[in-house]
Each structure stands twice: as C-alpha cells, then as structure tokens.
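Lecture notes, unit on protein representations.

Consider one protein chain, 286 amino acids long.
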Amino acid sequence: MYKPQLWISHSSISLFQSCPRAYFLSKIYKDPRSQKKIQIISPALSLGLAVHDVLESLSILPTHERFIHPLREKFETVWKTVSGKLGGFTDPADEQFMKERGLAMLQRVEQHPGPLAQKAVKIQETIPHFTISESDSIVLCGKIDWLLYREDIDAVEVIDFKTSKHEEKEDSLQLPIYTLLTTYTQSRKVVGVKYWYLERDDEPLAMPLPDLAESLEKVMRAGKQMKLAKQLEKFDCPQGEQGCMFCRPYEEILKGKGECVRETTREKVYILPEVTSRPNFDEVIL
C-alpha cells in the first residue's frame, strides 16, 4: 500500500522542534482560496540567499576561472532579485546596510579564497536526498553549500557558509544531516565538516566529524515525531494560543496583516513591514 512520503531537512526539523505550529504553517498549510503555501521573506534571509547564490555558483567552474571576475559583479546581479520589498526591505537605508554586509563577506572570500580555490565535488541532484525509513516513508533532503575535494585521499569535506553573526548551536543537526546526505548521495568518504562564518573568519572552522549511526538515529527520531504529528494533525505552539516568535509572524499573515510581494505556482511570499527592523536582521541562519 502506498504511503505518502514525508520529506524532512535540517530547516524543517529545526522549525518543528522550535514550534510545531510554525512548521505546519510554513511547510504544510495552504491558503484555502489559492491552494498555495505561505512564505515570509526577511532581510536576513535575503542576505543569506544572495551570498550563498554567488558562492555556490563558483563550484561549477574550473578552479582557474572562479575569481576571474569580481564577485561583486555577480552579487550586484543577484541582489536585484531581492531588492526592495522582494527581499523584505521597506527602508532603503536598511537595504544598503545589508547589501554592504554581503559585499564585505564576498570581499573576504576573494582575499582569502582557501577551499574555494581548490577542486570541489558537485552532487548532480538539485536537492540531494535519500530515504532514511522505507517503512515510515521518510526522505531526508538538503542543499549542501560546498564539498571540498581532497584529491590526496579521494575524499570530501563538507563546508557550510554562515552569513549570520550567531554561531550554530552545539546540538544542531545541520552538520550531522549534511554528513549523512553527502555519504549517501555520492561515493566518496566524508573526512571533515566545517562552518565558515563569512563575516568574521578568513577560513572555515573545523568541527567534530559526526558519527553516522548516531546522526541517523537522531534524524530518524525527529522524522518519526514529525510523521506522528502529521498523522494526528496536532501542531501546537509550545507557548499556547499567545504564540511564539516562530509562529506569530505566520499568524499575522493569516489575519491579513502581511503584504504579498511575489507569487509562484506553489506559494505566495509575504513581508511584514512592522517586524523587519534592523535588530532582527540576524534571526535567519543559513
């Protein structure tokens, strides 16, 4: 008998663990009129998307071609897609502030390219994924920023770019998930995992290599909790009806307080001008 698949990722697991209600409104709920999902764009998310887009585009180029053209040129082109309300910006000064942060990050990379000047492995799938539980029909997926090819030992290192000033928590499942995805979607062994905090560090920061069995167990446990919540249709905010910082913005959209700035065949993208202020610019970590 066919069982609907549940696709999970680091972002969806993290959101579910923070607030099941926010997970439901972001990943499952559809507007009854348009039958489209609702998404919220913010300055922090736009900054992360733009910088990631520029850096990830380098991995498909031969090493000697990656820095022929200034990264600023690519960034200027990408930034047009998130400029103004499309990126959650309602104040030109705030947008310029974030844009300059992005340019500074890319300038740092140009001055200290490190692993980005070396060979990289590119997984062919647009979104790498594999089934972690046939019986529960749970699929793990995720987009990996950079796979450094260690030619000396025919292995890879996972590098995740960080555009936020905040460090990833020690118990984060991000690197364990990326290690699993890299292991099961390409043939080479993973020998290292690193975060690159682009706003402060000239090189990636090495982290402990996750244990595969332990990582799979943690992800499986989270996936089954999400599966059960979906079966029971029970997605409660841990702070009750008053909501929390994760679900409250979506509730505001449902109340009609947001502004739709973009619409695709699958979703409607909103901004909440009253909550996109500079103190909150680092809430999203990619």
